[in-house]
Recover the amino acids of this structure.
């Protein structure tokens, strides 16, 4: 397993601010990484994915979305020697007692793809009428300024919908083609990326997290020269 620091690493993100800082998104999911890059585009970060560093994700041993998100964020920060953001998210279907929940990405087994997970979901809901298929996407986000950050920032977003029998739309990923939005008359996979970012669980959580980042200052990461200034003023 190859670990690579993001410091000194060239990024494809345009640099309009000399004070931009590296930020590792703790995911190897290209769909999630794309959404994070879009949602973070106007913040002073050079965004890279954990997979860009040749680093494998940790085993998700937490018993909640929050525990898994903290685990993944600290793992990414340690691997990259940089700030990191991680999400743990999933689909909760009321007729299935909240399943697939924590196991959404591997609902049909380790290494399962979207098609397999969706097929298992529809099979599990076969006896459930459409009106009883209420569901929600839930996302918990965690930001750490470094591996040992004593006060991680956390935020949560929830997106309500229903599960339908037939896929609609080709955008998005995961369960999006089956995640029906009654107020819009379409699935999540029929939304444009910009529309999805406005409405989605991940977009909600990140907007909440942005407020916390702003409260920490223009950059949430401690800088070496800031520490030097602090020592000199003592």
């Amino acid at each position: 397993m190859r670990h690579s620091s993001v410091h000194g690493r060239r990024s494809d993100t345009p640099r309009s601010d000399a004070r931009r800082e590296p930020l590792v998104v703790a995911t190897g999911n290209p769909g999630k990484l794309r959404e994070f890059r879009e949602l973070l585009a106007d913040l002073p970060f050079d965004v890279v994915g954990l997979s860009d560093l040749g680093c494998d994700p940790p085993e998700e041993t937490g018993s909640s979305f929050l525990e898994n998100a903290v685990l993944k964020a600290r793992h990414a920060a340690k691997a990259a020697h940089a700030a990191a953001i991680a999400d743990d998210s999933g689909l909760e279907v009321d007729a299935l007692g909240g399943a697939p929940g924590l196991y959404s990405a591997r609902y049909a087994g380790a290494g399962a793809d979207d098609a397999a997970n969706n097929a298992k979901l529809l099979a599990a809901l076969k006896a459930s009428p459409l009106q009883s298929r209420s569901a929600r996407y839930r996302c918990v986000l965690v930001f750490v300024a470094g591996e040992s950050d004593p006060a991680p920032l956390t935020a949560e977003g929830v997106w309500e919908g229903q599960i339908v029998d037939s896929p609609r739309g080709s955008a998005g990923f995961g369960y999006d083609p089956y995640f029906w939005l009654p107020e819009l008359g379409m699935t999540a996979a029929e939304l444009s990326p910009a529309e999805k970012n406005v409405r989605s669980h991940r977009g909600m959580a990140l907007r909440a997290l942005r407020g916390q980042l702003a409260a920490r200052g223009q950059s949430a990461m401690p800088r070496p020269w800031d520490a030097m200034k602090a020592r000199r003023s003592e």
